[in-house]
Specification:
Helix 9 packs across helix 10. A hairpin with a 2-residue loop joins strand 8 and strand 9. This protein has 10 helices and 13 strands. The protein is 29% helix and 25% strand. The protein is globular. The strands form 2 sheets. A 7-stranded mixed β-sheet has the order 7-8-9-10-11-12-13. A 6-stranded mixed β-sheet has the order 1-2-3-4-5-6. By secondary structure, it is an alpha/beta fold. The structure holds zinc ion. Zinc ion binds next to helix 4.
Protein backbone atom coordinates (compact mmCIF):
# COMPACT_ATOMS: atom_id res chain seq x y z
CA UNK A 1 0.00 0.00 0.00
CA UNK A 2 1.29 3.44 -0.92
CA UNK A 3 1.46 5.93 1.89
CA UNK A 4 1.25 9.43 0.56
CA UNK A 5 3.89 11.77 1.91
CA UNK A 6 2.65 14.22 4.47
CA UNK A 7 2.93 17.19 2.18
CA UNK A 8 1.46 15.36 -0.81
CA UNK A 9 -1.60 17.59 -0.90
CA UNK A 10 0.50 20.65 -1.26
CA UNK A 11 2.88 19.25 -3.87
CA UNK A 12 -0.04 17.74 -5.83
CA UNK A 13 -1.70 21.12 -5.96
CA UNK A 14 1.60 22.68 -6.90
CA UNK A 15 2.08 20.13 -9.69
CA UNK A 16 -1.43 20.82 -10.96
CA UNK A 17 -0.83 24.53 -11.02
CA UNK A 18 2.49 24.09 -12.83
CA UNK A 19 0.79 21.78 -15.31
CA UNK A 20 -2.02 24.30 -15.76
CA UNK A 21 0.52 27.03 -16.31
CA UNK A 22 2.36 24.94 -18.91
CA UNK A 23 -0.92 24.11 -20.65
CA UNK A 24 -1.90 27.75 -20.65
CA UNK A 25 1.50 28.81 -22.01
CA UNK A 26 1.26 26.16 -24.72
CA UNK A 27 -2.29 27.18 -25.55
CA UNK A 28 -1.26 30.83 -25.79
CA UNK A 29 1.71 30.05 -28.02
CA UNK A 30 -0.46 27.83 -30.24
CA UNK A 31 -3.00 30.62 -30.31
CA UNK A 32 -0.45 33.21 -31.41
CA UNK A 33 0.79 30.91 -34.20
CA UNK A 34 -2.83 30.26 -35.09
CA UNK A 35 -3.58 33.97 -35.07
CA UNK A 36 -0.62 34.59 -37.33
CA UNK A 37 -1.22 31.87 -39.86
CA UNK A 38 -4.99 31.72 -39.80
CA UNK A 39 -5.85 35.39 -40.05
CA UNK A 40 -7.89 34.72 -43.18
CA UNK A 41 -9.88 32.08 -41.35
CA UNK A 42 -10.50 34.42 -38.45
CA UNK A 43 -11.67 37.13 -40.83
CA UNK A 44 -13.90 34.55 -42.51
CA UNK A 45 -12.01 34.93 -45.79
CA UNK A 46 -11.70 31.91 -48.06
CA UNK A 47 -9.85 31.49 -51.33
CA UNK A 48 -11.63 29.15 -53.73
CA UNK A 49 -9.94 27.84 -56.86
CA UNK A 50 -12.34 27.91 -59.81
CA UNK A 51 -9.71 26.84 -62.32
CA UNK A 52 -6.32 25.27 -61.57
CA UNK A 53 -5.29 24.37 -65.12
CA UNK A 54 -3.60 26.14 -68.01
CA UNK A 55 -4.58 26.39 -71.67
CA UNK A 56 -4.37 22.69 -72.57
CA UNK A 57 -7.57 20.92 -73.59
CA UNK A 58 -6.40 17.66 -72.05
CA UNK A 59 -5.48 18.75 -68.52
CA UNK A 60 -8.87 17.88 -67.07
CA UNK A 61 -9.12 21.24 -65.29
CA UNK A 62 -10.77 24.58 -65.84
CA UNK A 63 -8.32 27.34 -66.79
CA UNK A 64 -7.05 29.95 -64.34
CA UNK A 65 -9.59 31.57 -62.04
CA UNK A 66 -9.93 32.26 -58.31
CA UNK A 67 -12.68 33.56 -56.09
CA UNK A 68 -12.27 35.30 -52.74
CA UNK A 69 -15.15 34.73 -50.34
CA UNK A 70 -15.77 36.90 -47.30
CA UNK A 71 -18.57 36.20 -44.81
CA UNK A 72 -20.02 33.67 -47.28
CA UNK A 73 -20.20 36.15 -50.14
CA UNK A 74 -18.02 36.12 -53.26
CA UNK A 75 -16.22 39.47 -53.23
CA UNK A 76 -13.38 39.41 -55.79
CA UNK A 77 -12.88 37.28 -58.92
CA UNK A 78 -9.31 36.93 -60.14
CA UNK A 79 -9.04 35.83 -63.78
CA UNK A 80 -11.82 34.25 -65.79
CA UNK A 81 -10.33 31.31 -67.68
CA UNK A 82 -12.48 28.93 -69.75
CA UNK A 83 -14.64 26.66 -67.62
CA UNK A 84 -14.43 28.95 -64.61
CA UNK A 85 -17.93 30.36 -65.07
CA UNK A 86 -19.34 26.83 -64.72
CA UNK A 87 -17.38 26.35 -61.49
CA UNK A 88 -18.47 29.80 -60.31
CA UNK A 89 -22.06 28.58 -60.56
CA UNK A 90 -21.20 25.26 -58.92
CA UNK A 91 -19.59 27.13 -55.99
CA UNK A 92 -22.96 28.66 -55.16
CA UNK A 93 -21.62 32.19 -55.69
CA UNK A 94 -24.06 34.94 -56.63
CA UNK A 95 -22.64 37.24 -59.32
CA UNK A 96 -24.60 40.12 -57.81
CA UNK A 97 -22.25 40.03 -54.77
CA UNK A 98 -18.97 40.47 -56.71
CA UNK A 99 -17.22 43.79 -56.08
CA UNK A 100 -14.32 43.58 -58.51
CA UNK A 101 -12.87 41.45 -61.29
CA UNK A 102 -9.08 41.45 -61.55
CA UNK A 103 -7.39 40.15 -64.69
CA UNK A 104 -3.70 39.24 -64.61
CA UNK A 105 -3.47 39.28 -68.42
CA UNK A 106 -5.58 38.72 -71.48
CA UNK A 107 -4.41 35.31 -72.63
CA UNK A 108 -7.36 33.05 -73.47
CA UNK A 109 -6.76 30.78 -70.47
CA UNK A 110 -7.20 33.76 -68.10
CA UNK A 111 -9.91 35.83 -69.68
CA UNK A 112 -12.07 34.03 -72.23
CA UNK A 113 -15.03 33.27 -69.93
CA UNK A 114 -15.69 36.96 -69.27
CA UNK A 115 -18.62 37.18 -71.75
CA UNK A 116 -20.12 34.05 -70.18
CA UNK A 117 -20.15 35.73 -66.76
CA UNK A 118 -21.72 38.87 -68.20
CA UNK A 119 -24.40 37.02 -70.14
CA UNK A 120 -25.09 34.85 -67.10
CA UNK A 121 -25.45 37.95 -64.94
CA UNK A 122 -28.60 38.84 -66.84
CA UNK A 123 -30.32 36.14 -64.80
CA UNK A 124 -29.10 37.53 -61.47
CA UNK A 125 -30.29 40.51 -59.44
CA UNK A 126 -27.13 42.52 -59.98
CA UNK A 127 -27.67 46.29 -59.91
CA UNK A 128 -24.23 47.58 -58.85
CA UNK A 129 -21.73 48.60 -61.51
CA UNK A 130 -18.73 46.31 -61.84
CA UNK A 131 -15.16 47.33 -62.67
CA UNK A 132 -12.76 44.98 -64.42
CA UNK A 133 -9.17 45.84 -63.55
CA UNK A 134 -6.48 44.59 -65.91
CA UNK A 135 -3.27 45.54 -67.66
CA UNK A 136 -2.78 48.35 -70.13
CA UNK A 137 -1.85 47.11 -73.57
CA UNK A 138 1.54 46.79 -75.20
CA UNK A 139 2.82 45.91 -78.68
CA UNK A 140 1.17 42.49 -78.51
CA UNK A 141 -1.87 42.85 -76.29
CA UNK A 142 -4.77 45.36 -76.16
CA UNK A 143 -5.71 47.53 -73.19
CA UNK A 144 -8.19 45.81 -70.88
CA UNK A 145 -10.75 48.46 -71.94
CA UNK A 146 -10.13 47.65 -75.64
CA UNK A 147 -10.48 43.95 -74.88
CA UNK A 148 -13.81 44.60 -73.18
CA UNK A 149 -14.99 46.79 -76.08
CA UNK A 150 -13.94 44.16 -78.63
CA UNK A 151 -16.26 41.68 -76.93
CA UNK A 152 -19.08 43.72 -75.40
CA UNK A 153 -18.87 47.12 -77.11
CA UNK A 154 -21.43 48.25 -79.69
CA UNK A 155 -19.07 47.06 -82.44
CA UNK A 156 -17.92 44.02 -80.49
CA UNK A 157 -18.41 40.34 -81.15
CA UNK A 158 -21.26 40.30 -78.63
CA UNK A 159 -22.71 43.71 -79.46
CA UNK A 160 -26.08 42.34 -78.38
CA UNK A 161 -24.75 42.70 -74.81
CA UNK A 162 -23.38 46.22 -75.32
CA UNK A 163 -25.93 47.80 -72.98
CA UNK A 164 -23.68 46.54 -70.19
CA UNK A 165 -20.76 48.67 -71.41
CA UNK A 166 -22.81 51.66 -72.58
CA UNK A 167 -23.17 53.75 -69.44
CA UNK A 168 -26.05 55.73 -70.97
CA UNK A 169 -28.12 52.56 -71.41
CA UNK A 170 -30.85 51.30 -69.10
CA UNK A 171 -29.01 48.04 -68.28
CA UNK A 172 -29.46 46.83 -64.71
CA UNK A 173 -25.78 47.60 -64.14
CA UNK A 174 -22.74 48.67 -66.17
CA UNK A 175 -19.31 47.17 -66.64
CA UNK A 176 -16.26 49.41 -66.77
CA UNK A 177 -12.66 48.62 -67.48
CA UNK A 178 -9.70 50.10 -65.62
CA UNK A 179 -6.30 49.85 -67.32
CA UNK A 180 -3.31 49.51 -64.98
CA UNK A 181 -0.13 51.09 -66.43
CA UNK A 182 2.80 48.74 -67.05
CA UNK A 183 5.47 51.44 -66.96
CA UNK A 184 7.12 52.62 -64.90
CA UNK A 185 7.22 49.32 -63.05
CA UNK A 186 5.56 50.13 -59.74
CA UNK A 187 2.67 49.09 -57.55
CA UNK A 188 -0.82 50.51 -58.03
CA UNK A 189 -3.17 50.31 -55.04
CA UNK A 190 -6.77 51.25 -54.61
CA UNK A 191 -9.69 50.58 -52.36
CA UNK A 192 -12.69 48.87 -53.91
CA UNK A 193 -14.69 48.90 -50.67
CA UNK A 194 -14.21 49.79 -46.99
CA UNK A 195 -12.47 46.49 -46.32
CA UNK A 196 -10.87 45.58 -49.66
CA UNK A 197 -7.70 47.07 -51.14
CA UNK A 198 -6.33 45.74 -54.42
CA UNK A 199 -2.74 46.23 -55.52
CA UNK A 200 -1.28 45.41 -58.93
CA UNK A 201 2.35 45.10 -59.93
CA UNK A 202 3.55 44.66 -63.52
CA UNK A 203 5.24 41.29 -64.03
CA UNK A 204 7.24 39.85 -66.92
CA UNK A 205 5.35 37.24 -68.95
CA UNK A 206 7.40 37.17 -72.14
CA UNK A 207 5.94 39.69 -74.61
CA UNK A 208 2.55 39.73 -72.86
CA UNK A 209 1.20 42.66 -70.82
CA UNK A 210 0.77 41.10 -67.37
CA UNK A 211 0.13 41.91 -63.71
CA UNK A 212 0.35 40.16 -60.38
CA UNK A 213 -2.42 41.07 -57.95
CA UNK A 214 -2.61 41.35 -54.18
CA UNK A 215 -5.94 41.55 -52.39
CA UNK A 216 -6.04 42.78 -48.78
CA UNK A 217 -9.40 42.02 -47.28
CA UNK A 218 -9.97 42.77 -43.61
CA UNK A 219 -6.74 41.57 -42.04
CA UNK A 220 -6.05 38.86 -44.63
CA UNK A 221 -3.83 39.15 -47.68
CA UNK A 222 -3.85 36.93 -50.75
CA UNK A 223 -1.45 37.45 -53.65
CA UNK A 224 -1.71 35.99 -57.15
CA UNK A 225 1.38 35.68 -59.32
CA UNK A 226 -0.55 35.20 -62.54
CA UNK A 227 1.70 33.89 -65.30
CA UNK A 228 5.21 35.31 -65.08
CA UNK A 229 8.91 34.75 -65.26
CA UNK A 230 10.59 36.62 -62.45
CA UNK A 231 12.51 38.98 -64.74
CA UNK A 232 10.82 42.07 -63.25
CA UNK A 233 11.60 40.79 -59.75
CA UNK A 234 8.47 42.47 -58.38
CA UNK A 235 6.38 39.63 -56.95
CA UNK A 236 8.24 39.13 -53.65
CA UNK A 237 7.71 42.78 -52.67
CA UNK A 238 4.04 42.71 -53.71
CA UNK A 239 3.44 39.47 -51.81
CA UNK A 240 5.34 40.50 -48.64
CA UNK A 241 3.86 38.67 -45.63
CA UNK A 242 0.88 37.37 -47.61
CA UNK A 243 -1.24 34.80 -45.84
CA UNK A 244 -1.69 32.98 -49.14
CA UNK A 245 0.50 33.30 -52.22
CA UNK A 246 -0.92 31.60 -55.32
CA UNK A 247 1.89 30.76 -57.73
CA UNK A 248 1.70 29.24 -61.15
CA UNK A 249 3.57 26.01 -61.73
CA UNK A 250 3.39 25.96 -65.52
CA UNK A 251 6.91 24.68 -66.20
CA UNK A 252 9.21 22.09 -64.61
CA UNK A 253 12.68 23.00 -63.37
CA UNK A 254 14.30 21.61 -66.52
CA UNK A 255 12.34 23.89 -68.86
CA UNK A 256 14.27 26.10 -71.26
CA UNK A 257 13.73 28.63 -74.06
CA UNK A 258 10.33 30.24 -74.55
CA UNK A 259 8.84 28.36 -71.58
CA UNK A 260 11.15 30.08 -69.08
CA UNK A 261 10.75 33.45 -70.77
CA UNK A 262 7.04 33.10 -69.91
CA UNK A 263 7.02 31.22 -66.61
CA UNK A 264 8.94 30.84 -63.35
CA UNK A 265 10.62 27.56 -62.47
CA UNK A 266 10.11 25.75 -59.15
CA UNK A 267 13.41 27.11 -57.76
CA UNK A 268 12.17 30.65 -58.50
CA UNK A 269 8.86 29.84 -56.80
CA UNK A 270 10.68 28.82 -53.61
CA UNK A 271 12.97 31.86 -53.69
CA UNK A 272 10.10 34.31 -54.16
CA UNK A 273 7.98 32.63 -51.48
CA UNK A 274 10.91 32.84 -49.08
CA UNK A 275 11.66 36.50 -49.89
CA UNK A 276 7.97 37.30 -49.40
CA UNK A 277 7.77 35.34 -46.12
CA UNK A 278 4.53 33.92 -47.47
CA UNK A 279 2.65 31.85 -44.92
CA UNK A 280 1.06 29.43 -47.38
CA UNK A 281 1.90 28.88 -51.03
CA UNK A 282 -0.82 27.45 -53.26
CA UNK A 283 0.53 25.99 -56.50
CA UNK A 284 -1.82 26.19 -59.47
CA UNK A 285 -2.00 26.54 -63.27
CA UNK A 286 -0.76 22.99 -63.69
CA UNK A 287 -0.02 21.75 -67.16
CA UNK A 288 0.61 18.23 -68.39
CA UNK A 289 4.34 18.90 -68.05
CA UNK A 290 3.99 19.75 -64.34
CA UNK A 291 0.85 18.14 -62.95
CA UNK A 292 2.36 14.73 -62.21
CA UNK A 293 5.65 16.17 -60.97
CA UNK A 294 4.53 17.44 -57.58
CA UNK A 295 7.24 15.68 -55.56
CA UNK A 296 10.05 16.93 -57.76
CA UNK A 297 8.53 20.43 -57.84
CA UNK A 298 8.27 20.45 -54.04
CA UNK A 299 11.87 19.30 -53.75
CA UNK A 300 13.05 22.36 -55.67
CA UNK A 301 10.75 24.72 -53.77
CA UNK A 302 11.94 23.29 -50.44
CA UNK A 303 15.51 24.30 -51.25
CA UNK A 304 14.49 27.88 -50.48
CA UNK A 305 11.12 27.83 -48.74
CA UNK A 306 10.17 25.97 -45.57
CA UNK A 307 6.56 27.14 -45.26
CA UNK A 308 3.36 25.38 -46.17
CA UNK A 309 2.86 24.44 -49.85
CA UNK A 310 -0.51 23.22 -51.08
CA UNK A 311 -1.66 22.00 -54.47
CA UNK A 312 -4.70 23.62 -56.08
CA UNK A 313 -7.48 21.55 -57.58
CA UNK A 314 -10.65 22.93 -59.13
CA UNK A 315 -13.12 23.98 -56.41
CA UNK A 316 -10.57 23.53 -53.57
CA UNK A 317 -10.80 26.09 -50.76
CA UNK A 318 -7.99 27.50 -48.65
ZN1 LIG B 1 -1.87 30.92 -68.37
Amino acid sequence: MLIPPINSGYSYKRKISLKALLTLTLALSIHSVFAQTQRCQQQDVTLQVLGSGGPELSDGRASASYLIWHHNKPRVLIDAGPGSSVNFGASGANFADLQAVLLTHLHVDHSADLPAYVKGSYFTQRTNDLTIYGPSGNALMPDTSAYLASLLGNKGAFAYLSDYTDTSSQAAYHIKAHNIPLTPIKQHSQKVSDDITITASPVHHGPVAALAWRVDIDNCSITFSGDMSNKNDTLAALAKDSDILVMHNAVPQGATGAAINLHMRPLDIGKIANQASAKTVVLSHFMNRTKNNNEMTLGYIRQNFAGEVKMATDMATF
